[in-house]
Amino acid sequence: MKSILVPVGSSKNAESHLQYAVDFARVFGAKLYVVQIFNVYTKAGTMIKVDHILERESLSFLKEHVAKIDTKGVEVIVKTFKGKLVDTIELACEALDIDLILLEPRTNSIKDEVYLGKTSGKIIKQTNIPALIIPEGYTYRPIIYILMALKSAQIKKPEALQPLKDIKNQFKSIVNLLLVKTTFYNEGDFDVNENLAALITKTTYSENPTTFQGVLEHHQANKPDLLCVVRRKRGFFTKLWESNTILKKDFHSSSLPVLVLSGLK
Fold it and tell me: What does DSSP assign to residue 159?
């Protein structure tokens, strides 16, 4: 894991989140890109050019933000981008060769009942970039126990497992696999191939309406330091995908970091 991206919003948690990101990047010897994306909506006939003003203010804000953090031992690069959030994030990640996005659950939302705000929700829902969601106020600690929840173990893109491999190798983590049989179960879904099997210590089987509900049933027994799920059309977040905002009452693991892998199939 060589390059990590941290989008910065205006949440009260931004400083705590960036400190976690720096501490996490330090362990991997990774570069940390701290970015802010702005868009400009102007009325027809407006004469004032504001792009350069917003860019200057955004860069100044990011530099002040980073100055509050102990960055010793980590290369931190600040960048601003103009454009629509999802498209710009994807282009930035491609240009900077990003391995992982570190997201805070609510970059802008101030509603206490919200787990994932609209901005973070859009990034998770509408991109295919591996992401690590860090709970608000969470302090860095080694990731020893990982619970990976899947409804299908079929993997056609082994490279999608790379963030999980990197974390497991760095922390010598124990990865327990939870295979959840849902109404969408197909023959062969629980056949674990050698790429995944090489990462797993123990496998548990469950039958639930959704992968999400399987996690709710089993994550307390596993007491993981990290939950690993997969971004799929009908994956872990299906129950939560009706809107970009996800409420805490619908996601009971809001104190647990969540690694979201890109689609495995």
Answer: G
CA distance 226 to 149: 11
Which residue(s) pair with 101 in the sheet? 5, 131
**What does the alpha-carbon distance between residue 35 and residue 31 come to, in Å, rounded to a whole number?**
13
- Count of CB atoms situated within 10 Å of the CB of 84: 10
Q: Which residues share a beta bridge with 230? A: 261
Please answer whether residues 151 and 189 qualify as being in contact, where contact means their C-beta atoms are separated by less than 8 angstroms.
Answer: yes
Q: Centre a 10 Å sphere on the Cβ of residue 49 and count the other Cβ atoms it contains.
A: 9
pLDDT digits (tens, 9 = 90+) for 6-45: 998 767 778 999 999 999 999 999 999 999 887 765 555 5
pTM comes to 0.84
3-state secondary structure of 99: coil
Q: Are strands 174-181 and 31-38 parallel, antiparallel or unpaired?
A: unpaired
Element (H, E) at 79: strand 76-82
CB neighbours of 77 closer than 8 A, spacing ≥ 6? 31, 32, 33, 34
Residues with Cβ within 8 Å of 209's Cβ and at least 6 positions away in sequence, in order, are 182, 183
CA-closest candidate to residue 143, choices 20, 42, 240, 8: 20
